[in-house]
Amino acid sequence: MNLFNFTKVLLSSASVEERWNLIQVSLSKYITTFGRLHEHEQTIPPSSLQKLFQTSLEPPVLILLLQTFLATLDQNPSQRDGVREYMDGLANVPRFSTVLLLLTNPEKDCARRVWEKVGVDQVNATWRI
């Protein structure tokens, strides 16, 4: 799945569950040279976030991801390790520190709450929130 499609589906997802499932297992549709539509599952592992976003991570997408992580942890605390891996993966995205500068105080507070829920007292130095 490319960033355009990921962002389009993420922003159009109606629920936290849909967004979390998109991140964990995304369904990607593609058309073959014969015009047939195929669907396959493709995971977005935390280690691939750097490649997915490259230098194109935008604040609205980061905020939506943070809100998804927070709501997921509220509903299912057993996802703590998975969310933490994604938080660490986001820190490796180029321009990440610049995007953080653009967040408002309530948005930074959302990130702090996610870190608290995954059990981290000292926030990753890259996050500097």
Question: In terms of topology, how is this protein built?
Answer:
Layout: H1 3-12, H2 16-24, E1 25-31, E2 37-43, H3 49-53, H4 59-75, H5 80-90, H6 96-101, H7 105-117
Antiparallel strand pairs: 1-2
Helix pairs in contact: 2-4, 4-7
Tell me what you see in this structure.
The protein is mostly helical and 129 residues long. The protein has one domain. The chain contains 7 helices and 2 strands, in the order H-H-E-E-H-H-H-H-H. Strands 1-2 form a two-stranded antiparallel sheet. Strand 1 and strand 2 form a beta hairpin. Helix 2 crosses helix 4. The two termini are 30 Å apart. About 7% of the residues have low confidence.
- Identify low-pLDDT runs: 27-35
DSSP helix fraction:
55-70%
Distance between the termini: 30 Å
Largest sheet, strands/sense/barrel: 2 strands, antiparallel
Shape: globular
Brief summary of the model shown:
With 129 residues, the chain is mainly alpha-helical. It contains seven helices and two strands.
List keywords for this structure.
single chain; 129 residues; mainly alpha; two-stranded antiparallel sheet; 7 helices; 11% strand; globular
